[in-house]
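Next comes a concrete protein, fold included:
___
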Amino acid sequence: MIEGIAFQTNILALSAVVEAASVQANIVNVAMNVMGIVRKSGVRISRISARPGA
């Protein structure tokens, strides 16, 4: 009985670790996408600012 509960607890803990790693990977992916958007926006702002009469 105790062994079964310990086993289930270990499985739940392992599942939580896997889920946390998945969430972290998604956060990193979102952050990289946001950084790319910011970089592109900066380039476009520079181009617009360089136009005559801007």
